[in-house]
Amino acid sequence: MTATSPVLTQRVVRTQRVARRHRIVRWAVAATVALVVATAPPVTSPNATASAAGLPPTCPDYATCYAIGLLAYTYAYPLVMTGVTEGVGTNVPNATTTPGRAPVNQFSNNALPTPGPTDIVLPNVNTPYSVAWLDLREEPVVMHLPDLGDRFFLMESMDAWTNVIPNSPGTRTAATAGDYAYVGPDWNGPLPAGLTQVFRFPTNTVFIAGRTYSTGSADDLAAVTALQSQYTLTPLHAYGTPYSPPARAGYEPNLDTTAPYTQIDTMDAGSYFARFAQLWQSNPPLPGDSAAVDALARIGLVPGKPFDVDQLDPVARQALTDAAREGNRIVDATAKRTSPTVTNWNMTLDLGAYGSRYLLRAATARGGYGANYFRDAVYAGALDDSTGQALGGAHRYTLHFAKDELPPADPRAFWSVTLYNVPGETLFANPTNRNALGIPAVQDHLPCFDADGSLTFYIQAAQPDPTTEATKYCNWLPAPEGTFVLLLRMYWPAQQLFDGTWIPPAVQQAP
User: CA 63: distance to chain centroid?
Assistant: First the structure.
């Protein structure tokens, strides 16, 4: 709905929709919920036990240790996820062997995704990706951007705690051709003159998820490929000189490359908190984290120092073991909750900047690592139609946008509706090679407006007759015989999305 319609205030209602709710995790994460704190009665004092065993004192009782352990697990989760994800994403010999992966401080430039197995969940068919992991411990890294003209692009830049900088280079922030320095917290040296912009990060690990819009035509994709080849990363010591990235050192062909969240799920408390402490040494706490840092110190987790759970007394060790198990369950359960609108789309409007909302931050890292800053993009997902029934190929559906009520993306950006298989959240292979519809063109195709200026998408398994139902065929989004989900992407969203005067129209079953 737009501001020209009767105002329909968005009601983002938290609810546990047990059936199928785990499918929404990739695009909609619930608002923060209160952290569960143990109510178990105090038991033998860990300090007394520690003193008898010659170990350092910790928190005063099991319940306190357990509560701090829950906080620690939630607080640490995005940093641990960053470490595991970076390990998987950079453990390759070069930047071209495996799509989406490249050695540290190098871009992996990717083509548009196609149906089939992929490491990427809910792949984006609007924008070929250029992704990179930066290590800023030794020195800054300079990113070069070519002149992209009026083509939409976004170089989403995220710290190790998964906060996205609000001024990530892109069309929304009016970024221009030039050189952009990424500087970590430990660098105090000089920077060269002539840099276009300097970004100072609170962590030494930075993730860049670059997106470059393409209409999807062969010529336009070739143009994007040419632009991607001009995205470069240069360590400061080599800036201004001819530079080629070195061959990957320390490549581990036997490294565990299973999904990062699966790896974290299998970590015991000792491994989890030790990994966190190791990553914490080069990715320090944020300025607003002092209360959490003070609490974590009570169980021996201190910035810059290693952590060994076996050095704790038995009661504290048991409390952390139990807290890690419950913390993992809480993070997972929160990531599976939904934020439904009154039209059965699930949409969260405040991701990418978390402050002290540690559980939301953890759940987002668990379910949708790399979520955009909300001013850059908002995603809405639909599992169900207007009646609450799961979307599936046994039915035909319409998605109708009235005149002047299209998704509120800035005209310099884009919006699209993409269909994905369930399970797997992969693209659906179909004879038309059409996986999405939107404005501007997606996959070299523009939808057709009705005579009254409205736009209706037809989502079904059966192909409309292109001769007798030309508009319907033009706006056909092929669906599989089984269940599926829809994802509405809105890049550079307008204020009406945030003030509740526009929500996605319901997906309606067609007669």
Answer: 34
